[in-house]
Design a protein that fits this description.
The chain has 277 residues and is of the alpha+beta class. It has helices at 3-15, 51-54, 123-130, 134-140, 156-164, 166-176, 184-201, 207-218, 224-235, 239-254, 261-276, and strands at residues 46-47, 58-64, 70-82, 88-94, 99-104, 108-112, 118-119. Helices cover 45% and strands 15% of the residues. Helix 1 packs antiparallel against helix 11, helix 6 crosses helix 9 (224-235) and helix 7 crosses helix 8. The termini are close together.
Length: 277
């Protein structure tokens, strides 16, 4: 059994575990009496080009629905879509309801990052973490909160880097999260790997890009679809590239000194299979 089958079985089993996204700060959700209180799905919505970059991003939102009921909850984004009314929707798994729900971006009062930092209004935070260009940014902002904002130009090189590393970062983060959370030291190990890869790609990872990429890694909680796509991509690469990925996974898992026996055994099996060719 090679890289694809072993990692699929291990990581997807872990992804189904009932843990909720961990934050650096204490958090108590606040939900109205009608727990499924987000907006109804919009069947005519279409995915935004940046939707793949948004998938797996996890943070807290304070949301005010169409009936003016306010809630605070942890969400993991699965997709970004645009409605026929030119509104941006976040399709996300709510950690509190354990349901996939839709949230209109212009009805989000504020966001709280995994670090506890609050962004109110949330438009600039969402634009940055999703990598949106100015035109989609205008759709995302609330009508009042969006006025007078000068949207920064899209960092095309950073977007290319994130796209190039999407599957590798997904796999490394999934391995780090296999024990229920991604620690700061694990995220730093993943960032060190990203620095090496960015050098090979010829993309300079300056202070601003490093800050954005570290935030992206820390709030990434890979979905099942992401994990499957990452494993399919990496298992199709040459054996040496697969072995490099296994070594990177090992570095990340050992970074906090808390690797579990089943994790080490998995990597040793995969490494042995690859060495045999």
């Amino acid at each position: 059994m090679g890289l694809k089958s072993q990692l699929s079985e291990f990581l997807l089993k872990k992804a189904d575990a009932p843990h909720v996204p961990a934050l650096d700060v204490g958090f108590v959700p606040s939900l109205p009496s009608r727990i499924l209180d987000s907006d109804e799905p919009h069947p005519e919505s279409t995915p935004l080009p940046s939707s793949p970059d948004a998938e797996g991003q996890t943070f807290v939102i304070c949301y005010v629905n169409a009936k003016e009921a306010q809630s605070t909850r942890r969400i993991t984004v699965h997709a970004l879509k645009r409605t026929s009314e030119a509104r941006v929707l976040l399709f996300a798994r709510c950690a509190e309801t354990k349901e996939i729900m839709s949230f209109r971006a212009d009805r989000i009062k504020y966001c709280m990052d995994v670090t506890g930092e609050i962004y109110e209004p949330p438009a600039m935070f969402l634009v940055e973490i999703f990598g949106l260009g100015p035109s989609d940014a205008e759709l995302l902002a609330a009508e009042t909160a969006g006025r007078g904002i000068t949207w920064p130009p899209k960092d095309e090189a950073y977007c290319v880097l994130r796209q190039q590393l999407r599957n590798e970062l997904t796999l490394l983060t999934a391995m780090a999260e296999s024990d229920g959370l991604v620690s700061l030291v694990e995220s730093e190990a993943i960032l060190a790997y990203a620095r090496r890869r960015s050098d090979r790609l010829g993309i300079h990872l300056d202070e601003a890009r490093t800050y954005k990429l570290q935030g992206f890694i820390r709030r990434l909680r890979p979905t099942e679809d992401q994990i499957n796509a990452a494993i399919d991509d990496i298992s199709a690469r040459p054996a040496k590239a697969q072995m490099d990925m296994v070594l990177a996974c090992s570095e990340v898992m050992l970074a906090d000194g808390l690797a579990h026996t089943e994790e080490i055994e998995l990597l040793e099996k995969v490494r042995a299979d690859l060495a045999r060719g």
